[in-house]
Design goal:
17 helices, 0% strand
Length: 335
C-alpha cells in the first residue's frame, strides 16, 4: 500500500459504517474508545491526512498531552477528540451538552439513512437532554432545538403521526425565538415547514401565511452555494402553490412557478430529487395554462412532465404520465 494514492485504497463505505456503529455504541462503554478511535482513523484516511503505509498516531500519548486543555478549555476540542481524551486519560466523564448533541447527530443521521423511527426518536431525546443541560446563553442551544424540530419533521414524514407536527412547531418556535437574522435560515425553514404541515391538517390560513414568510426568510439567509438551496426554493414554491389552491390569487401562482424553477436550476442535473422537483414545477405550469391558455406554459409542462416520469417513486411516475398524456393531447389541438 505504501506510495498509493489515498483515494485508491480508502473505501467510502467505511465512513458510513463507522458512523452507523458510533450511533449504536453507548458513550463510556468498553467498546466506545475503540469506536472513537476508528472514527478518527477513518477521518484521517478519508481526508488524505494519514497516507497508506504511514505509521498510526500514538493516541495515548496525544490524549495525555491534551489533558490540561480538557480541564481548562474543553469547549475548544472537537467532541470526538474530547471523548477520546476522557477515555484514554481516565478522566471524570465529560457530560456537557456538546457531547449529547454530537451523539444525537450521529443517531439522527443513522435514523434518516435507514428510515429508522426509534433512532430518530432517540436523537430527539438526546437533543432535548442537551438543551436541558445547557444554560440559556449557551451558543449551541438554538441549534440543539433546531435539531429536535428537524427530528419531529422526520418522524412525521416516516409515520404520518399528526402529533409530531405539533411537537415540531413547539420546538421550532423555541429555536427561532431571539435569533439574529444571519443565523435564522435553518430554524426559519424548519418552523415554516411545520406550520405548512399544520395548515394542511387544520386549515388555518394564518399558519400558511406565516409559513410562507418564514420559508422566504430562510431562503433569503441561505448562501447561493448552500447544499439546501434547491430544497428551500422548493419548500417555498410548494407553500405558495398551496396558498394559490386555497385563495386563487394569481400572484401566488406566479411566485410558486418562479420559486420552483429556481429550485430546479439550483438542483443540478444528477440529483435524485430532480424528477420530483420538476414534477412540482410542471404541475403549476399546467395549472397556469388552464387559467390562461398560454401555450408557453403548456409546452413547459409537457417538457417537465417528461422528466418527472423518470422518477423512481411509482406514485409520482404514474401521475406524471397522466399529466404528460393530457399535455400532449392539448398541444395536438393547438394550431
Amino acid at each position: 500500500m505504501a506510495g498509493e494514492r489515498p483515494e485508491a485504497v480508502f473505501d467510502p463505505e467505511a465512513d458510513v459504517l463507522a458512523y452507523r456503529l458510533a450511533a449504536h455504541t453507548s458513550a463510556g462503554s468498553a467498546e466506545f474508545g475503540e469506536v472513537v478511535q476508528l472514527l478518527g482513523l477513518v477521518h484521517l484516511c478519508s481526508n488524505g491526512i494519514l497516507r497508506p503505509g504511514a505509521e498510526l498516531p500514538v493516541l495515548p500519548e496525544t490524549a495525555r498531552m491534551l489533558v490540561p486543555v480538557f480541564r481548562s478549555a474543553p469547549h475548544t476540542l472537537p467532541v470526538l477528540l474530547l471523548v477520546t481524551v476522557e477515555l484514554i486519560a481516565e478522566l471524570p466523564p465529560y457530560r456537557k451538552p456538546e457531547q449529547l448533541a454530537a451523539k444525537a447527530i450521529n443517531l439522527m443521521n443513522h435514523g434518516i439513512a435507514e428510515n429508522d423511527v426509534p433512532s430518530v426518536a432517540g436523537a430527539i431525546n438526546l437533543f432535548l437532554d442537551a438543551v436541558a443541560a445547557s444554560p440559556l446563553d449557551h451558543p449551541d442551544r438554538d441549534a440543539m432545538l433546531t435539531g429536535a424540530c428537524s427530528g419531529w419533521l422526520t418522524v412525521y414524514q416516516l409515520t404520518g403521526d399528526p402529533s409530531a407536527v405539533d411537537h415540531a412547531v413547539r420546538t421550532g418556535e423555541e429555536s427561532f425565538a431571539g435569533l439574529r437574522r444571519p443565523t435564522r435560515a435553518e430554524p426559519a425553514t424548519n418552523l415554516g415547514i411545520a406550520l405548512r404541515l399544520r395548515f394542511d391538517r387544520d386549515g388555518d390560513p394564518a399558519d400558511l401565511d406565516r409559513a410562507i414568510e418564514l420559508l422566504d426568510e430562510g431562503l433569503s439567509c441561505t448562501p447561493p452555494d448552500h447544499v439546501d438551496l434547491a430544497v428551500r426554493h422548493n419548500n417555498l414554491g410548494i407553500a405558495l402553490g398551496t396558498r394559490f389552491n386555497h385563495s386563487g390569487r394569481r400572484r401566488d401562482l406566479d411566485l410558486a412557478v418562479t420559486a420552483l424553477r429556481q429550485a430546479g436550476d439550483a438542483l443540478g442535473p444528477h440529483r435524485r430529487e430532480r424528477p420530483g422537483f420538476l414534477g412540482d414545477l410542471a404541475y403549476f405550469h399546467w395549472v397556469r395554462f388552464e387559467q390562461t391558455g398560454d401555450r408557453t406554459d403548456l409546452e413547459a409542462a409537457a417538457e417537465l412532465f417528461a422528466v418527472a416520469v423518470t422518477s423512481r417513486d411509482e406514485g409520482l411516475r404514474q401521475r406524471a404520465q397522466a399529466y404528460l398524456r393530457a399535455a400532449r393531447d392539448e398541444l395536438a389541438k393547438l394550431p
